[in-house]
Amino acid sequence: MNATATQSTAHHQGSGERLLNISDLHVSYGMVEAVTGVDLQVREGQIVTVIGPNGAGKTTLLSAIIGMLKSKGEVHFDGHFYKVPDVENLVGKGLGLVPEKRELFTSMSIEDNLLLGAFQRFRRGDRGYETTLAEVYSLFPRLWERRKQMSGTLSGGERQMLAIGRALMGKPRLLMLDEPSLGLAPLITREIFRIFADLRRQGVSILLVEQNARAALKVADYAYVLEGGKVAMQGKAADLANDPRVIEAYLGLASKHQELLSS
Amino acid sequence: MNLQIAILLGQDGITNGAIYALLALSIILVFTVTRILLIPLGEFVTFGALTMYAFQSGHETSIVWLLAAMIALDAALDLKQLFSNGMDARKAQWIGIKLGYAALMVTLMHTLSLQEIPMLAQALLTLMLLVPLGPVMYRVFFQPIASAQPLVLLIVSIALHVTMVGIGLLMFGPEGGRTAPFSDTALRLGSVMLKSQTLWVILVSVVLIVSLFLAFERTLYGKALRATAVNRMGARLMGISPDFAGKATFALAAFIGVASGILIAPITTLYYDSGFIISLKGFVGAIIGGLISYPLAAIGAVAVGLIEAFSMFWASNYKEIIVFTLIIPFLLWRSINSNHVEDEE
Ligand SMILES: Nc1ncnc2c1ncn2[C@@H]1O[C@H](COP(=O)(O)OP(=O)(O)O)[C@@H](O)[C@H]1O
Ligand SMILES: [Mg+2]
Questions:
Q1: What's the pLDDT tens digit per position in A56-103?
Q2: Which CATH number among 3.40.1780.10, 3.40.920.10, 3.30.2350.10, 3.40.50.300 corresponds to the domain A1-94+172-238?
Q3: What is the pTM of this model?
Q4: How many CB atoms within 10 Å of residue B74?
Q5: Which CATH number among 2.100.10, 2.30.29, 1.10.260, 1.10.3470 corresponds to the domain B3-58+114-331?
Q6: Cβ <8 Å between B85 and A86
Q7: ipTM
Q8: Assuming Cys at both sites, which of A237, B6, B43, B213 could form a disulfide with A223, CB separation 3.0 to 4.6 Å?
């Protein structure tokens, strides 16, 4: 069964093993189905992006994968099948999510926020998190300068850095990010996207949900277009960036306008 | 009123205030982490006091069977979850440990001659019997409805309080009890006598409050509980399970409640139904702290103790009314000042 499944995703470039494999995922809010049968794969060492309009179900999809929302379908992560994906377990196994709203511990210091990112490792007795803390600080020197400050006092860009740094403290094998560029100035967006490429070099795979399709397609290897809870298109990111339908809907003038508004 | 009486009343007030402060801190802790108002906290106090009394007076107590029954219920729920979510060796082992603990406690209670063992051992046994009821209570009654409206949680909390008062009557009977003081010596400070139990209460309370503070400021587990209180969703994404946080806070609250009961048992005669009024005074302190601020709540609780002691002298019939009327200006002040900001973004 594994062999045929691998065949069907052979168009996925990249030599890595499948790290995340979602098949026929359905998620509902009450009677309304927001994600209707999504198949999606992320291979080891890849950056995969999911783009799509507001309300397409991107946030819902990520929440269901990590087990914050109940879903129907199959979630395989790192070779294990999760009948009922459960956050605590998956986080411990190396799945991280930087949520759309950041969800920082605003009345706690930056350093405490970061340390809490390593809670599962600490609990397992993995004391390597102090090395990771140093790595996160060298990735985001601004966090080091402000480490004693309450995280609620940070600017938008710094908050996003803290949210990413906190997720990295768990040493994720797959980092999922929900609209990391939302509300950030273009300069900071660029800085954060540069870090994604760095992270991949260090062996972290990334599943990136973005409204900023231009930037996302530039950094990603593979892309999915989600519309109305379904995968409308998928392919190598470079191919999609040249697809007339994608250009018209997500890279054209209209979306340029939207990009400007959101920055 | 002369100075001597004032010092005596002050002593009583601070002693009770220290206990109210401990209870106020537990109430805030449980509320911020789980959104549950822990009404049955007072029953942990009375159970603690009455279990000590039962040991010392040689009365039969069946409290260990309550523990055994609750642990069995807890284990059954865990097993059911284990079957539906898939086996997990570590969780299965944990169920075994809990059942083993219950068996150990039953054996201890039936082999030890409880009346003869040192008071410290009696206190330890009391804690071992009653503190696990806290996390088990959370597991059995609150974990399945953890995402319910606060009002639903409050109703369950009240129901548990009423049930525990009933169980208290069943297990300890209608008579009250007062235990022997921890030590017999009294301290003389100039012309006033300081009761040694007073010093014990203040000492232990201060030690407990300081250790709680250190645990929450310095340890990652303490920070994890604070994180859950600050942002539940964020905490879950860090792998801090709300079930773990709920059980841990209930364990702490149960520990503080039972310890308070053991501390005041030599000073006050407690009955099976005395818990409510005691925890209500802790609650007044917690309200003064706005159900958020630990230092304000502690100061408020000590003030409650002092006001109670002095109103006992001047208007003993109105002592409770005076104490509970205190809550009104603070509620008004809080509701005028609160601006209902949910997490800014
Ligand atoms: N908590 C919720 N309750 C009910 N419907 C929701 C909720 N969250 C999102 N939805 C709906 O689900 C759909 C997908 O939303 P979402 O996943 O947030 O989209 P995206 O992240 O792509 O903008 C939308 O139609 C939205 O209105
Ligand atoms: Mg979204």
A1: 999 999 999 999 999 999 999 998 898 888 899 999 999 999 999 999
A2: 3.40.50.300
A3: 0.88
A4: 23
A5: 1.10.3470
A6: yes
A7: 0.88
A8: A237
